[in-house]
């Protein structure tokens, strides 16, 4: 019997019983299909009226399926190698996958090599992934030896689906039915199985040789310190060996740029254990970079019409009940402190205190937009397992602003803030970005964490979406990613090696003005409620500092560099002459140091190069005689015999222009020499 379906937008007649695999049999790159907007295995049989879209292994969804299938193969290999291993969760993640195991002894690097060898055999054997729908009772019986799977199954019988039980749990359970995937060999025998929603690749051979196990470490079951510590193995998988090699090269480059390592090498910051995790201290050189960042953004805020304010680090707890952060954001705040029977909290955000400034006296429509700004340090109770150098800390200094506007002014204020944010990123050398629109969840268990009416959310979201689209930048939806009080736009910026970081944000808040009773007198004499728009341009100074360090691989632009010039005398006889040159630079406001040490000249040059200083000035006999210096640049090139006054002028102009490019020789090729 013939049925009519739609395949890749085109109508087609096929025989009943046709599978997605039959439709795309000639294209090995198609690994799953989207049928009626649901991702399914290629073994799925289509029915009349279905809309079928092929998914390639090179697309994001195809890569996710590849990686999840590789996770299953790894788990099969682990249980063959370590008979004691009990299965946790094994989802795909960005660029790879992981699987958690309960084992008697932690995995060693040697274990990972042996597991990889077992994976090779499984992959080459061409096992198929076969999906079965089972009842809850059947699943419990089949998973009887897997206590963590049984726990997930028990959660499907409660008020939720179990998909929210832990990160990655949605790939195991949920979705309205329980399924098990069997790994079946060529004899038709099931050699391994797991509780899983799928979909998966048609067979293991499609994993090919573009995979690798990366590392192992500990992870609490379901992310809670109250639960057992499991062993997590991380892996990566790509369609080809060449893509795997390219990925490893990117990782090596990322390691070279790791701000935690560079922070130590360049003496920028540290995390003393005596102070506590996620609480950085900035050393003098790091402090210079922070000061430059602060000076820049403070000046920009004033130019953009903001007024500087300052608020305390702690507050009575009641303030955060008024704002709605308690209980909606309670998990992100540190516990209360007691003083004379009064509970206080470290602030996790600045907005409630800015609201108190707004309502400290009567306001008129003539004052709006009223823009308040501060460098507000807030404290968030991030769990130790998610802390990541400066990019995920417990102490966050925000260049935080709040604009109080009329509803009619809101679109223009968002435009104003977006333009400000994008220009700031460009000034710091980040020019490749897109926008993300975070909205509330309208279904599921998490929808109740958002406050406000449907009409308020729709109106606020429409304003942000309209203004974001006007920029011409790509706009990516982020359903469920909004703050509890309103939607937001975030700028997602790519660094020098293509990684994406969330940077600046702007949020539309219709809730806090109501909760604080904020009002202004309108032109007709009536009392009206303002709209509150939150914005952070750096996001946080600490995070932006970390991202910049990696973006520039520690080679900060001259205007940001802690030490802008290092003077290196060729011999001790030229120390005084180089000191005179340094004095001229210092008088012009340049941060300069002279290496008066006793090391030999070549070692001094190597030391200055390791410190990634933008300008190295060299002075020898010929330079001293001619009132000149020689430049050595970060790319290793050199320019000799530059008159001192010209050298000072060039350095000062480069710094004052806030040029983010590395300074280079102005000499012709024939004049460019090495010392």
Characterise this structure.
It is a single chain. The protein has 4 domains: 2-56, Roll (Ubiquitin-like (UB roll)); 60-253, Threonyl-tRNA Synthetase, Chain A, domain 2; 299-552, Bira Bifunctional Protein, Domain 2 (BirA Bifunctional Protein, domain 2, 2-Layer Sandwich), CATH 3.30.930.10; 565-657, Rossmann fold (3-Layer(aba) Sandwich). Helix content is 31%, strand content 27%. The chain has 19 helices and 33 strands. The chain has an 8-stranded mixed sheet with strand order 16-20-21-28-25-24-22-23, with helices on both faces. A 5-stranded mixed sheet has the order 2-1-5-3-4. Strands 6, 7, 8, 12 and 13 form a 5-stranded antiparallel sheet that branches. The longest helix has 22 residues, at 60-81.
Tags for this model:
alpha+beta, BirA Bifunctional Protein, domain 2, globular, Ubiquitin-like (UB roll), five-stranded mixed β-sheet, 675 residues
Helix content: 25-40%
Q: Give the C-level CATH assignment of the largest domain.
A: Alpha Beta
- Radius of gyration (Å): 30 Å
Shape: globular
Relative strand content: 25-35%
Name the CATH homologous superfamily of the largest domain: Bira Bifunctional Protein, Domain 2
Corresponding CATH architecture of the largest domain? 2-Layer Sandwich
* SSE class: alpha+beta
- Average per-residue pLDDT, rounded, comes to 91
Count of folded domains = 4
Distance between the termini: 84 Å
Outline the biggest β-sheet. 8 strands, mixed
Number of helices: 19
Spatial ordering of strands, largest sheet: 16-20-21-28-25-24-22-23
Residue stretches low in confidence (pLDDT < 50, at least 5 long) are 668-675
Please name the CATH topology of the largest domain. Answer: BirA Bifunctional Protein, domain 2
Care to count the β-strands?
A: 33
Biased composition (Polar residues): 665-675
Cofactor: Zn(2+)
Enzyme class: ligase
Family: Belongs to the class-II aminoacyl-tRNA synthetase family.
């Amino acid at each position: 019997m013939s049925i009519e379906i739609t395949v890749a937008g085109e109508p087609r007649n096929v025989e009943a019983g046709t599978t997605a695999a039959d439709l795309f049999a000639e294209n090995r790159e198609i690994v799953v299909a989207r049928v009626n907007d649901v991702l399914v295995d290629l073994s799925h049989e289509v029915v009349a009226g279905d809309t079928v879209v092929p998914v390639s292994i090179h697309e994001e969804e195809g890569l996710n399926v590849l990686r999840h299938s590789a996770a299953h193969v790894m788990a099969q290999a682990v249980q063959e190698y370590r008979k004691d291993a009990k299965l946790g969760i094994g989802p795909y993640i960005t660029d790879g996958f992981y699987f958690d195991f309960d084992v008697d002894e932690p995995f060693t690097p040697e274990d990972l090599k042996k597991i990889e060898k077992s994976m090779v055999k499984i992959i080459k054997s061409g096992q198929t992934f076969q999906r079965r729908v089972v009842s809850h009772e059947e699943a419990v019986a089949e998973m009887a030896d897997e206590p963590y799977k049984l726990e997930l199954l028990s959660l499907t019988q409660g008020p939720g689906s179990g998909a929210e039980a832990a990160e990655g749990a949605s790939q195991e359970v949920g979705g309205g039915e329980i399924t098990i995937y069997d790994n079946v060999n060529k004899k038709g025998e099931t050699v391994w199985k797991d509780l899983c929603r799928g979909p998966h690749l048609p067979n293991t051979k499609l994993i090919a040789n573009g995979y690798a196990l990366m590392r192992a470490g500990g992870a609490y079951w379901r992310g809670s310190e109250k639960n057992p510590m499991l062993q997590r193995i991380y892996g990566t998988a790509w369609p080809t060996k060449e893509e795997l090699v390219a990925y490893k090269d990117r990782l090596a480059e990322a390691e070279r740029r790791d701000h935690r390592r560079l922070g130590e090498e360049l003496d920028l910051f540290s995390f003393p254990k005596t102070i506590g995790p996620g609480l950085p201290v900035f050393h003098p050189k790091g402090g210079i970079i922070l000061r430059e960042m602060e000076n820049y953004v403070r000046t920009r805020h004033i130019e953009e019409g903001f007024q500087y304010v300052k608020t305390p680090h702690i507050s009575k707890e009641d303030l955060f009940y008024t704002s709605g952060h308690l209980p909606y954001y309670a998990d992100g705040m540190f516990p209360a402190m007691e003083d004379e029977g009064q509970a206080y909290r470290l602030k996790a955000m600045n907005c409630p205190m800015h609201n108190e400034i707004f309502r400290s006296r009567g306001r008129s429509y003539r004052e709006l937009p009223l823009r308040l700004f501060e460098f507000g340090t807030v404290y968030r109770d991030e769990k130790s397992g998610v802390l990541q150098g400066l990019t995920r800390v417990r102490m966050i200094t925000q260049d935080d602003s709040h604009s109080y506007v009329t509803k009619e002014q809101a679109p223009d204020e968002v435009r104003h803030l977006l333009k400000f944010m994008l220009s700031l990123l460009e000034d710091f050398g980040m020019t490749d970005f897109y926008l993300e629109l975070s909205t509330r969840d309208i279904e599921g268990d998490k929808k109740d964490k958002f406050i406000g009416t449907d009409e308020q959310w729709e109106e606020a979201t429409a304003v942000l979406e309209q203004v974001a689209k006007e920029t011409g930048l790509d706009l990516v939806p982020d359903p469920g990613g909004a703050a509890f009080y309103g939607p937001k736009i975030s700028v997602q910026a790519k660094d020098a090696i293509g990684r994406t970081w969330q940077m600046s944000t702007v949020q539309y808040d219709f809730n806090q003005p109501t909760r604080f009773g904020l009002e202004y007198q309108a032109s007709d004499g009536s009392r009206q409620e303002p709209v509150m728009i939150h914005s952070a341009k750096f996001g946080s100074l600490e995070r932006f500092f970390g991202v910049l360090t990696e973006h520039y691989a520690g080679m900060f632009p001259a205007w940001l560099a802690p030490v802008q010039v290092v003077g290196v005398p060729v011999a001790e006889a030229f120390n005084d002459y180089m000191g005179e040159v340094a004095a001229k630079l210092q008088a012009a406001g340049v941060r300069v140091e002279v290496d008066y040490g006793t090391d030999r000249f070549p070692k001094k040059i190597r030391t200055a190069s390791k410190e990634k200083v933008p300008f190295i000035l060299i002075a020898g006999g010929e330079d001293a005689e001619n009132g000149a210096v020689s430049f050595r640049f970060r790319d290793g090139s050199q320019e000799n015999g530059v008159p001192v006054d010209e050298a000072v002028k060039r350095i000062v102009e480069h710094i004052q222009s806030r040029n983010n490019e590395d300074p280079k020789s102005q000499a012709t090729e024939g004049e460019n020499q090495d010392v």
